[in-house]
């Protein structure tokens, strides 16, 4: 590989053909699918995707990689957007989009939160991420990996860990293991908070003081919380309560009345 990976972009290029084929099987792209690839890099996923779809949109921040991609693939098939994905407005791509990518691990959590804002136009997302991040995404209450990321993503998506990927599958070889994950947005009919911004605030407050009991960590929001009716122990900590219980908590703060 003649291209030298740049640390500032968190570049680790997938080189394992067997893993690439497993990813293609998981995505199962169709000709007319509207797919956006984040970080196409050296085309490990881009090339097989272009073999399977009529047109592919790819977002790449590295100008040198962009030149390589333009030389390698027809502009009639590959629409290349040269910018930081964190600045990309995904709503311009229409409805029923599919998003894929071997995501830079240094921006994975902020990017996942960024994409939540357009979940209503997304069919699914398939990402390669640091294994530790995926374990947090799918973690359940009272487990060591359960945290703010778990709650916020599980409120919005059905999340499935697909398979682990050894570090030997990349060049350069990362110091961490990786996993492939699928996120499918939940329907608008799901049980969801009445005020999403308040829900975010409650979750953030609870986990920013996660060593404290909920009685203490949430006291700045309210000192009069009907713990029994909410079916939550005030001695619980943030990692002990479910997504649904966080929704009930935030709805209580919104109404400022006991939950019936």
TrEMBL record:
Class of this enzyme: transferase
GO molecular function: 16S rRNA (adenine(1518)-N(6)/adenine(1519)-N(6))-dimethyltransferase activity; RNA binding
Bilayer-crossing regions: none
Primary location recorded for the protein, binned into one broad class: cytoplasm
Pfam families: RrnaAD (PF00398)
Ligand binding (S-adenosyl-L-methionine): 12, 14, 39, 60, 84, 102
Function: Specifically dimethylates two adjacent adenosines (A1518 and A1519) in the loop of a conserved hairpin near the 3'-end of 16S rRNA in the 30S particle. May play a critical role in biogenesis of 30S subunits.
Protein name: Ribosomal RNA small subunit methyltransferase A
Organism (species): Candidatus Kinetoplastidibacterium blastocrithidiae TCC012E
The encoding gene: rsmA
């Amino acid at each position: 590989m003649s291209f030298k990976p740049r640390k500032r972009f968190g570049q680790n290029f997938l080189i394992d053909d067997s893993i690439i084929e497993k990813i293609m099987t998981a995505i199962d792209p169709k000709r007319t699918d509207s797919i956006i690839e984040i970080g196409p890099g050296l085309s490990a996923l881009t090339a097989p995707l272009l073999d399977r779809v009529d047109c592919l949109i790819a977002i790449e921040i590295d100008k040198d990689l962009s030149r390589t991609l333009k030389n390698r693939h027809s502009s009639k098939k590959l629409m290349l957007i040269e910018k930081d994905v964190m600045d990309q407005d995904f709503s311009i791509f229409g409805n029923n989009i599919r998003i894929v990518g071997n995501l830079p691990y240094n921006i994975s959590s902020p990017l996942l939160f960024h994409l939540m804002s357009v979940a209503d136009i997304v069919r699914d997302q398939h990402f390669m991420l640091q294994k530790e991040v995926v374990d947090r995404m799918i973690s359940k209450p009272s487990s060591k990996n359960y945290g703010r990321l778990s709650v916020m993503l599980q409120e919005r998506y059905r999340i499935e860990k697909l398979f682990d990927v050894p570090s030997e599958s990349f060049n350069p070889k990362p110091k961490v293991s990786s996993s492939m994950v699928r996120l499918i947005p939940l329907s608008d009919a799901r049980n969801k908070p009445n005020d999403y911004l308040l829900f975010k605030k409650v979750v953030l407050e609870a986990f920013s003081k996660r060593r404290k009991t909920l009685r203490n960590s949430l006291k700045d929001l309210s000192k009069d919380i009907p713990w029994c009716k909410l079916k939550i122990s005030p001695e619980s900590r943030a990692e002990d309560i479910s997504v649904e219980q966080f929704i009930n908590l935030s709805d209580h703060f919104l109404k400022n009345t006991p939950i019936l």
